[in-house]
Amino acid sequence: MKKELYRQDNQLMQDAFDRIEVEIHLQKKNNGIQSLLLCGSEPRVGTTTIAIELAISMAEAGWKTVLIDADIRKGTAYKRNAGSENANLVTYLEDKSDLKQVLIETNYKNMKYIFGGSGEGNTVSLLCSAKMQQLIKELKEEFDYIIFDAPSINSVVDAGVIGSLTDGTIIVTSQGSYKKQLSQAMEQLRHVGANILGVIMNKVEKAEYKRYMKNYNYFKDKKYVNKKYKATVKKGEDN
Amino acid sequence: MKKELSIDFVQICRDLIRGWWLIAICVIVFGGFGVVKTLDKGVNSYTAETTVYSVTYGALDEVLTGVSVMHQYEHLITSKVIANKAATLLETKDLSGDVIKNMVSYEFSNMSSSSNLVKIHASSLDPNTAIRVADAVAQAFVEHTNNIIGGNSIQIMDEAEISRVYNSVTTDRMKTRLLFAAVGFVLPCIYLVLSSIFSTKVMTVSDAKTEDKIKVIGVIPHNRDI
To answer: Is there a contact between B221 and A12 if contact means CB atoms under 8 Å apart?
Structure first.
């Protein structure tokens, strides 16, 4: 079985994720951060999209990366990345399958994926289990980065449980989401002892993005095109 | 915990631009209300003017007496005596002495006490009535003062003509409409500015930054904008 994952084919978007990748890489280099939890300040801020993009970005950079769908409360029908019913995070935590079975190949060379499955009311005890700690330990030996994609901390407690086990936590928020939800998310994560690395702000309007990134179109703006290259192109057109 | 209120002018401008539709709707609604409110065309008020003068030729005594009498008896123009006399001259039941008295006013052509010209005004909603009343009052005044001085030096110079038409509604109509439209512009602007200042949403990168001084490690543009 192979999980097909895709990222936005856009240089601006890829550049934004490359910046986050650099930040995380520095965290690994300086503080030994290897396992990461991504959770939203509130639902629908785009946590899953960011987790996928980030994992692909890291895999493409040559880092062995595993992306884990840690939303084990949602039924398959509600999931964007629904998959294997027999080998997933839940079956692994329930001791019904081994790590080799749950690690799914993806269309990216250095990236593997673990489906979430459905915990059906048993999620907290599964996530708090020794098996979960064992999973992180084993994955750390095999992969450079382990990324957990968890539901919003303000919706369910799962992110808090995982955040206490991972080396770092990143909160995803989006333009237009509530400040209070963001503050509460941070408060809850700090309460469980999670190491908050920072916030990723998603769905930022172009005007605000331009304000934040002054030379955001550096690689596109014609004023940066080499004069010699311009002359060559013009010559080619004339001929 | 004490919370700081930060004002981001760029964000306020952006919110105002984003809320252009609200501003436009309010300007249209309030402006429309102003138009409806000023649809009443109002009533015209006409003022007729006639001029009475003291002749300046003939014996000096007579001239000076005429000017002096005009100034001494000027108040008679708006008196009941003259008004009743004018009513008699008009021979109209609708225009009694009291009615005419309320229609009439006067002024000298200049403020000097040697002015020999007095302008008599009569105002009415009907221009013909205004003209007739002005003429009648002028005639009554001339006859009355000439009787006093026993001469003929006070005379009517010009027949009455409409000198002024006043419509209060027309004058203020445009002003009222503009005022309503201005209110329609200002109110949503105030609403947008206040909602921007007191917004509880994460609208800028610094909004996410200032919360607990947390670091923003990434900003992802909206995919609809790229």
So the answer is: yes
Per-residue pLDDT, A69: 93
pLDDT of residue A86: 75
Question: How far is A59 from chain B, CA to nearest CA, in Å?
Answer: 18
Across the 226 residues of chain B, what is the mean pLDDT of every consecutive 10-residue run? 67 90 96 87 85 74 71 86 89 85 86 74 91 92 85 84 78 84 96 91 83 82 76
Shared-domain flag, residues B135 and B31: no
Contact status of A174 with chain B (Cβ, < 8 Å): yes
Alpha-carbon gap, residue A115 to A103, rounded angstroms: 8
The predicted pLDDT at position B43 comes to 79
Q: Where are the domains of chain A?
A: 2-238
Query: Is the domain of B27 the same as that of B125?
Result: no
- What fold is seen in the domain A2-238? Rossmann fold (3.40.50)
Token pair for B138: 């002028």
Closest CA to A39 of A237, A200, A224: A200
Residues B77 and B58 in one domain: yes
Chain B positions contacting chain A at CB under 8 Å are 10, 14, 200-205, 207-209, 211-212, 214-223, 225-226
Q: Quick one: which of A60, A38, A107, A174 has its CA closest to B224?
A: A174
| B76 and B98 together in one domain | yes
Interface ipTM: 0.84
List, for chain A, all residue ranges whose pLDDT scores fall below the cut of 70.
Answer: 1, 75-85, 119, 121, 215-231, 233-235, 237-239
Q: Name which of A154, A173, A179, A190 to mutate to probe chain B: the one with the most chain B Cβ atoms within 10 A of its Cβ.
A: A179
Is A23's CB within 8 Å of B223's CB? no
Rounded CA-CA distance B26/B183 in Å is: 8
CB A79 within 8 A of CB A85: no
Within-domain flag for B4: no
Q: How far is A211 from chain B (nearest CA, A)?
A: 9
| Nearest Cβ partner for A173 among B14, B208, B222 | B208
User: Using an 8 Å Cβ cutoff, are B120 and B141 in contact?
Assistant: yes
